[in-house]
Amino acid sequence: MRFVGFVLALCLGLAPMAHAETSKPIPVKVVVLTTFEIGAVTGDQPGEFQPWVEGLPLKETIAVPGLRHPARWSPETGVLGVVTDMRARARESVAALILSRQFDFSKTYWIVAGIAGVDPKAASIGSAAWARYVVDADPIFEVDDREIPGDWPYGLYSLETDKPNVKGSAVGSSGMVWALNWRLVDWAYGLTAGAALPDSPSLAKLRAPYAGEANATKPPFVLKGEALGATRFWHGARRTQWAEDWVKLWTDGAGTFTMTDCEDQGILDVLDLYAKAGKVDFSRILVLRTASNYSRAPVGAPEFPRAFHSEGAMAAFDAAYRVGSIVVRELSTHWDRYEANTPSMTANGGAAK
What we know:
single chain, Rossmann fold, 2 domains, two-stranded parallel sheet
């Protein structure tokens, strides 16, 4: 009897383990990747993540090994929300998410939704840009600006080169530039171009010093424009000129620098690697960045102190959810339409592969 009891106890003890090993990964329709939250994920001042948790809503919590923050899940809609953390931590978090084996990402759409600095040439604070390209600005040579040759515009240039504005190589470091599925980007833009982005006297006040720069002084709007990722914060007229040149260089003139952030290059590098391994579908990735501040001061104004305003951040948090949630709801609600066919703009505005 003791032996039988022992065997029974052993079997019961192994049962949860066996269930865990045989349970199927959760099929995910859409992943929303945000990079930080200010405090709690509900009920206080919002950061990037809270509008998604409260608005979709994402009611269930799922712990994922390697993620500092629990993921949030909606079984009704099939949407997963994640805080990746910022800068280099985002790369580690996305890799941990894919490797966790808790989820099936084979048909998943990925939407990076975060705030950024914006080039005043491209857009205004509170605006939202769908990226056609993501460009990496981390693998780079940097010379002290006080020591650069007199005919150089700045002291930043590509690896494997000896001067600015020559495309080099970053083999073993980064893919450097990722072209997103332009049909999907166009579809997302077409779906959201008319989204109402709130304006306010506070935002108008932030725009006013940029008088004469047409896009910088518009009320918030939705556009298409490229994301430049660098783990360091930067600001200023020369750095903005470098960013404009760097994006043109690495996209062979096809891209326009619009938003500067700290995570997209790492996220896209990881997603690209796992797409090549068959874990994710790279043609189903979208990057949405919303403007919380300008990347430089108005022409003729001093660059310091660097202008960052809470009003701009709050507008950018709101814009990311307002614009991004339109796409998330369309994909998840009409999964019968988009599970097998990646949407794109067609002549009649429908979805096509």
